[in-house]
From TrEMBL:
Source organism of this protein record: Labilibaculum euxinus
One Pfam family it belongs to: CYTH
Residue ranges occupied by any CYTH domain in the UniProt entry: 4-134
Family annotation (InterPro entries): Adenylyl_cyclase_CyaB, CYTH-like_dom_sf, CYTH_domain
Name of the molecule in the record: CYTH domain-containing protein
Length: 180
């Protein structure tokens, strides 16, 4: 199973992140409008990603902790017209839906995303990937740490939750305010 080391942080300045990524030779793979549908799952997180660039079913297991996090990831490529999402929704139930615009940058085995998430704001995500067991966890960790420094990400902006969890927290907070 592929292993990733990932970080996610609030992004104060997308233009600055863009410029830094391009200056270090990261290639821009484009901008994708994506809808992620999260399903109820007995273990890990199961989501169906729909976009014009990326379409896949993703299952991953990771700790929710600030800073870099190790994830075990299964990816299943799908077709945009697949009925798989409908089948999963009927059998497992939908937990939440996240809409975002994602800029995708890659350099070697590292992918960086600049995300604008509906209802949440702007984020940067760094994913150092080992798809075949040839890169050690320490090396992946080192790569993430280097990107944190290079992109000048403030430690206080690091987050541990998924976008789905953050949206659910926002909805709960909003409901509390309405009820008061």
């Amino acid at each position: 199973m592929p292993t990733n080391i990932e970080i996610k942080a609030y992004c104060e300045n997308k233009e600055k992140i863009r410029k830094i990524l391009l200056s270090i030779g990261a290639g821009c793979n484009g901008t994708d409008h994506q809808t992620d549908t999260y399903f109820h799952s007995k273990s890990g997180i199961l989501k169906f990603k729909e976009g014009s660039i990326e379409n896949m079913l993703i299952h991953y297991i990771r700790e929710d902790k600030k800073g870099s996090t190790e994830s075990q990831v299964h990816l299943y490529p799908t077709n945009p017209d697949s009925t798989l999402k409908e089948i999963l929704a009927k059998t497992l139930g939908t937990r939440s839906v996240v809409e975002k615009t994602r800029e995708i940058y890659t350099k070697d085995n590292v992918t960086c995303h600049i995300d604008t998430v509906k209802g949440l704001g702007d984020f940067v995500e760094i994913i150092a990937k080992d798809n075949d067991g040839s890169i050690s966890i320490d090396k992946l960790q080192e790569q993430c740490n280097q990107y944190i420094k290079t992109l000048e990400i403030n430690a206080k902006h690091l987050i541990s939750e998924s976008y789905s969890d953050l949206l659910q927290q926002n909805n709960l907070f909003s409901q509390i305010l309405v009820d008061e």
